[in-house]
Amino acid sequence: MFKLRRYLAGHYAECVLAPLFKMLEALLQLLVPLVMAQVIDVGIATRDAGYVLAHGALLVGMGVLAWVVAVTAQFFCSRLAAAFGTAMRDDLFRHVLSLSREDVERLGRASLVTRLTNDSQQVQDGLNMFFRLILRSPFVTFGTVIAAFIVDGVEGAVLLVAVLVAGALVLGFMRVTASRYRDIQRGLDEVQLGVSENLEGVRVLRAFRREDAERAAFAQTARTVRDRQVTTGDISALVNPLTYVTVNCGLVALLWFGGAQVNVGGLTQGQLVALVSYVSQALVELLKLTNLIVLLAKASACAKRINEVFETEPTLADGTLDAAPEQGAPALAFDDVSFSYPGAAGDALSHVSFALAPGATLGVIGGTGSGKSTLASLALRFYDVTGGEVKVGGHDVRDLTRHTLRRQVSLVEQGATLFSGTIASNLRWGDPHASEKDLEAAVATAQATGVVAGKEGGLDAQVEQFGRNFSGGQRQRLTIARTLARRPRVLILDDASSALDFATDAALRRAIARDCADMAVVTISQRVTAVRHADQILVLDGGQQVGLGTHEELLAGCPVYREICESQLTAEEVER
Amino acid sequence: MSEKNLRSGSATSETVRRVLALFSDRRGSLVSAAVLTVAVVVGTLALPVLSGRAVDCVVGVGQVDFVGLGRSLAWIALTLGATAVCQWALTAVTNRLAFGAALTLRGRAFDHLQELPLSYIDSHGHGDLAARIVTDADMLTNGLLMAFQQLPVGVLTIVVTLVFMFALNPAIAAVVALLTPISIFTARFIATHSAKHFSGQTRLRGELTAYVEEMVGGISAIETFDMADAVHERFARTDAALGEESFKAVFFSSLVNPTTRFANALVYAAIGIFGAFVAMGGGITVGGLSAFLGYADQYAKPFNDISGVATELQNSVACARRLFALLDVPPEEPDAPGAVVLAEPRGEVDLDHVAFGYDPRRPVLTDVDLRVRPGMRVALVGETGCGKTTLINLIMRFYDVDGGAVRVDGHDVRDLTRASLRAGWGMVLQDTWVRRATVRENVSMGRPDATLEEVRAACREAYADDFIMRLPQGYDTVLDGSASLSAGQRQLLCIARVMLARPAMLILDEATSNIDTRTELLVQRALARLMEGRTSFVVAHRLSTVRDADVICVVADGRIAESGTHDELLAAGGRYKRIYEAQFAPTE
Description:
The structure holds two protein chains of two kinds. Chain A has helices spanning 12-46, 49-98, 101-107, 109-133, 136-151, 153-200, 202-207, 211-236, 239-263, 269-311, 372-379, 402-408, 423-427, 436-445, 449-453, 472-484, 502-515, 528-531, 551-557, 559-568, 571-575, and strands at residues 332-339, 349-356, 361-366, 387-392, 395-396, 409-412, 421-422, 462-463, 490-494, 520-525, 536-541, 544-549.
């Protein structure tokens, strides 16, 4: 939790003032019995009505002051905690955005969401309580111990031992329960995953009539969480009674030794009464401290989960070059490129070379796992090559800034993601400054004019979360339009029309050839029809480059390509 | 409907009533909690009396009654032990009640999800639905714990202390009792004010959660478009609003403690001054007065706890309400009474002038009329968005038709049990769905009792066995982030699922679009074998699929515009011919 202190920057004054004001309030509270003692010892003894009233007024005045001080402290605390929470969430989200897809999957999407929302809230709440009680509770606890020492050394020692033992108990329990709270949190992540999966797979699950099995599985997950909560609850429920017993054992010892002291004249009865009241005050504050520590333990478990995200470093360093493409250089070139995923045994791509001139087209074809999508990832530098060089406009992609590179090279992936907002706001992901006309042109090329026209409000039609109110094919065309609106120099379509029927697909290809003549277009597909008219076709098989040439050249010289063609087209169509 | 009720006050008591109803079968636990609460309070309040007695045994030098002191201390020790045990037991019992209630509600909500119509699930944020089951249930637990633990102990402490005080001196006790409402009213006043901000905080947190979920889901698009800054900026805006609302909620609610403490200070001063005058008149001893002040202190503390609980409870009630709102969504219309079980269907499917629209004002299908004989292979083609997928939703009865009827073996699907209807169909959808579970569990979803040999056989037929055997733990590999499959491999798994289930009828929705072209030929052969003798609907984008169909239906303008075989339709020179030719027209 301490690691997150950086989010307090700029609020150091509140960090000091808030606990200080809380302490001030405690001090005022501790003084009240003393004033009352004066009323009893002086006012009542001398039957001085004026004295009593004046001290009554003093008590009320102290009450008012304590209120003002306390409200100020609460103001500082809540502002501090809110500012901390906001800044931390902000930074955490920024960090999540910088992670690679693999890291996001490894940490778990659902879990990342929980960490950003639930965990950060708990840390914020913990911090709020921390600042409220950190000075106040120890101050009152040890204040009473010191007061006891002033009255009598032995009695002070008794109280000190009681408080220390109780404190040690609390800390011991905290250690035991901290890992259990993490287990509970992990269990809740499972519950979250259970619900999300169930919602996502609702059609398949219902088609297979798995409702009852789902119910049973979820009940099991939820029960596990409940069981963990109950067990952990049983353990941490020991803390309060044990502290209570410890401190009051101190009271028993205090009364016994105190009795002996009074018997020999070392102590008066009145002093003993005062000591008794200190014990109960110490207990109350110690219990508060206990609760604070339990809350902090929970918060620190959450803080750990948050730090885990922060400790996942984005791996790629940004380049520094912000240069225009070199004259005459290929728009995109792979020069003997090899790549293997971190931790993977074999290469996902090995020794791939091609050069794509501005305005030229390249088709990439190959089976599942042949490395087609990896090729796209390398062109956009989602990963760094492990051998060779990827060049865009004559520059190594590792030298270019991410911004420069991704302005020039853009990708449409198969999983079409839209975001909640409007159609226009989604299209402007491609180019934030695009005019309505630009957007309409991009929509027309992407064969999505009908999609836009069919929705109420046209470009301003609402898009729901994940674009749920659009069909797969509609989403796919809009994501293509989004990329076209960017007008990149290199356009990569990675199985981007998988959800389109072949008529629309063909119309799309014609429109791109017509409207995007200045773009170098890479079409990655498993369909021969999607790549056969490209200037060059790259054939991949298990990460190896097994062919590069035109349709006719490959038919004649590349057995893998020929095999693919024959699986998809009739003999007559292959030749056509 | 239920969303609207959220605001009104009567909804609060209704929500509380429904929460309480969760404990109707836990009377035993409630009674023991009540008994333990009394024991804890009496034990705690008896302690000052007992230590007072001990002090009475210690009067002065040479005047200490060690026997009496010893006896008093023994009593204290006994009380302490008993109170501590009761305290622990109280927490243990109430923990079980609260966590149990969360479990019950989670279970109910999840069970309810299984019965909700797809129209609801399709049109609501999954993140929001999940948050209700996960976060809101958790918040409710916190509230319940407070309601079971702090609240009754606090209230009882006040009552018992009042009784003790009236026993000591009725006049002074009356002053205390009269001042009590100040504390209560200020606490209530503040609670109602902070409630507004708490629900604002909950709402904004929901908004933020939904946004985060969407962005984490679309992280690849963010990467591609280098949009991290813009996405972050939008997040920061909501985050800042949440921070502001959270600050207000916390600040206003944290006014309760100082304010009740202030009220306490007033009570204390009142007792002090009034008591001093009574004492001057001889109405009470100094010792009695100091006992009073001690009790005033005891009596004041629970007010803090209770008002703290009040704000916390507000928050929990808001969460419970969201959870109940989900439970109140009407479930899918149950199977008709006397619904027929479709046993061993022949596979005769009849679309009788079917009309449907997700939004009734915008029909997707207006008049789809088609008769399919058992064993026929139907290919559905048409422009994207023409309603092919919708047709599948209707055939599987994920949605009900607005007009006309879907019949299987002559039965209107609305007269069949959903379970038996869906058991008749096998389905491979465009969006492949693989859950976090082992490969074997994923494949055997349609037949959980299948042996490993049967699973492997199905996977071999679907040409999935090869890549599965290459996974780290073969069929026992858990599919999640670290062992993710390519889209094509996922598709193969989904086909294997249907292979294993061997249904009477098939629905293939663009099923082959992701498959490795080289193995596709083999998969198509396997599918052809599967489709043998089975009625099949194929939403196809590939010519090879269409060519082998018994009948091709071109869906357009909400109806079947053309139907016939590949050759017939080509010869007819209509829409289908245009589509076919568009596919092979030169792109230059």
